[in-house]
Amino acid sequence: MEGGGASAGGGGGRAVSRRRSEKPYKGIRMRKWGKWVAEIREPNKRSRIWLGSYSTAVAAARAYDTAVYYLRGPTAKLNFPDEISGGGGLKDLSAASIRKKAAEVGARVDALHQTNGGHHHESMKPSWYQDEIDLNKKPEPEGEDPAGVDYW
C-alpha cells in the first residue's frame, strides 16, 4: 500500500506538468466533452468564482481576464493584456457582479468566434490535438540516407 502511494505521488508531478502544457491559457480548462470553463480563486479565500462555460478557449480566457482584472487591478497577469478595456468599471466588486461581467465578456467573445469563424469546431481543439493518424500506412522516412543504404 505504501509503495502505491509513493508512486502515485511521484506520477502526480508529471501529470500536473503535462496538464499545464495542454492548457492554452491561464484560468481555464477543457471539459471531457469539449467545452471550455473558466474560474478564479477569490483573494485571501479558499472559494472560487465560477466564470462560465464556453465553446472556445479564447472566450473562457477573456472571461478569466475580466475577472482577474477586477480582482487584482491593472497589474494583473492577463492572457490578452492588449484586449482588456478599462471602461465600464464595476462599482460593486462582489463575486456575483464579477461573475456577471466576466460571463458577459465571455459570451460576447464566444458569439464573435462562432459567427466570424464559421468553423468554430477547429478552435475547440486544444493545441496538442493532432488529426487521426492512419495506422495502416507505412511510415515515410524523414530524411534520405546520404550513402543511399537501405537498412530495411
Any overview of this molecule?
- The structure is a single chain.
- The protein has helices at 2-22, 57-72, 95-117, 120-123, and strands at residues 28-30, 36-41, 48-54.
- Strands 1-2-3 form a three-stranded antiparallel sheet.
- The longest helix is centred in the last third of the chain and has 23 residues, at 95-117.
- With 152 residues, the protein is an alpha+beta fold.
- 42% of the residues lie in helices and 11% in strands.
- Strand 2 (36-41) and strand 3 form a beta hairpin.
- It starts with a helix and ends in a 29-residue tail after the last helix.
- Keywords: DNA-binding, Ethylene signaling pathway, Nucleus, Plant defense, Transcription, Transcription regulation.
- One of its GO terms (molecular function) is DNA-binding transcription factor activity.
- This is Ethylene-responsive transcription factor.
- It comes from Sesamum radiatum (Black benniseed).
Summarize the structure.
The chain has helices spanning 2-22, 57-72, 95-117, 120-123, and strands at 28-30, 36-41, 48-54. The chain is α+β, with helices and mostly antiparallel strands and 152 residues long.
Cα distance, first to last residue? 47 Å
Q: Largest sheet, described in full?
A: 3 strands, antiparallel
Percent in strands:
5-15%
Radius of gyration: 21 Å
Task: Please state the overall shape, judged from the principal axes of the Cα atoms.
Answer: elongated
In DSSP terms, counting alpha (H) and pi (I) runs of 4 or more, how many helices? Answer: 4
